[in-house]
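ok so i was messing around last nite and threw this chain in just to see what happens. nothing serious, just curious
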Amino acid sequence: MKTALKLGLLAISIAAWFLLIQPAQALSPKNCHLSNNHPTTVMPNFQPTVELPSERVNHHHFWLANCLMLSGQAGVDACHCAIATNPTNPLTWNNLGQKLFGLGRYSEALISYNHALLIIPNYSLALANRCGVLDKLKRYSEALTSCELALGGDKQWGSGGEALAWNNQGDILFNLGLYEEALASFERALAINPNHEGANWNRMVMLHKLGRPIQ
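result:
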């Protein structure tokens, strides 16, 4: 299954490469440069949230820090510069996917998660995020596979934790009309993180759908 997923990701990523590599090329290392620790040329009005004090600042670390911290198009731009300065960091590709997902650019987000998984095929967080975006794209069978692989992956979850994958899986099962299975997934998410807002809300919706009292 993992080999099949890796081959599938390779085919998808090669076919869709130009959707993301062209922006990354436009923000090439020579353009994503810094002057006194501030970005210049490409984004003259860009306001970083993270500045590195060293006079010989590592450009990739600067852009990655802002890729992690910024939201919206500014975050996308910072992630592209981080990729331009180091295209082999899976964390950057995953975070680019999250920024694109937040902007509703789901197909582009999927490509970015696929790139992260080409670098680390069992990267749990990227697999869970891929599961979520495939759900948005109504590709439910692929989404379930991605969630299952996330739960059996490398356990690099970031701040969201394993509850993210269980909640995403529950959402897919709900969309497939598998309500009992969906409820079980939401409850697994809450067993890991009782304060997970999405899973708490989804569980209440699911109990209402099943005609059961909300506890």
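not much to say yet. The beta strands are 34-35, 38-39.
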